[in-house]
Amino acid sequence: MGVSNKYYQPGEQRGARVEDLFETIAPRYDLINDLQSLWLHRRWKRLLVQMAGVQPGAKALDLCCGTGDLAFALRDAGADVVGLDFSSAMLAVAEKRGRKTVRFINGDAMQVPFEDASFDIVTIGYGLRNLASWEAGLEEMARLTRPGGRLLALDFGKPENPFWRWIYFSWLRWGVPLFGKLFCRDSAAYAYICESLKAYPAQRGVAEKLRALGCQEVQLKNLLGGAMCIHYARKG
């Protein structure tokens, strides 16, 4: 498969290119997410937090936390939250939004600086696709989760209905990059989404990996006909 996007680079260089991407879009990231999803992404994130079943005082880790949407939602539900991201530009936005209520740290989601079984809840929103290895990302999530704890992931999916899938990928290929061009003066920044989905297994692959890790109660909730999805699992 040829690579046609300057921000998508398989292998060891993946992280550096993705970091460049988020450096570019960080100032307008929240605005563009609202516009391109018609504000639905906020509803999906609230749904993920509801599925997490947060208990007051629960220890939660949000990987690839970006500007902090999930981290703040977990905090509002009563959790003690750490948000981790490798993009200093995105973390700068997150810290302005609520530095005193959530602990934000710069780090690699595949090499998190916490001991095994440190958290009751580990989440990741729109981050697995961006890792050099989504499998390693899930393995790290499982390592960090306490027995009986919950792992949850929200990301783009791949609709099974052929016609809807065609419409969806056409929108990602042609429509979404317009937001990047209009608001970031860089269409490739959002054309990246479609490029990154080509190698991402989405619904079935992530669910299979969670089961292979020994997780229980693996659930998949499709949103918008599978255009988005939430994975839920409990660590055995």
* CATH fold description: Rossmann fold
How many strands? 7
Strand numbers in spatial order across the main sheet: 3-2-1-4-5-7-6
Cα radius of gyration in angstroms = 17 Å
- How many helices in DSSP terms? 9
| Major pleated sheet | 7 strands, mixed
Instruction: Enumerate the spans where pLDDT stays under 50 for 5 or more consecutive residues.
Output: none
The gross shape turns out to be globular
Q: N-to-C terminal Cα separation, in Å?
A: 37 Å
Name some characteristics of this structure.
Rossmann fold, 7 strands, globular, 236 residues, single chain, alpha/beta
Q: What's the quick description here?
A:
This protein has 236 residues and is of the alpha/beta class.
Write structural notes for this entry.
This protein has 236 residues and is an alpha/beta fold. The protein has a single domain, classed as Rossmann fold, CATH 3.40.50.150. It has nine helices and seven strands, in the order H-H-H-E-H-E-H-E-E-H-E-H-H-H-E-E. It has helices at residues 14-25, 29-37, 40-52, 69-76, 88-98, 134-144, 162-184, 188-198, 202-212, and strands spanning 59-63, 80-85, 103-106, 119-125, 145-156, 216-223, 228-234. The chain has a seven-stranded mixed beta sheet, with helices on both faces. Strand 1, helix 4 (69-76) and strand 2 form a beta-alpha-beta unit. Helix 3 (40-52) packs across helix 4 and helix 7 (162-184) packs antiparallel against helix 8 (188-198). It is globular, with a radius of gyration of 17 Å. The mean pLDDT is 90.
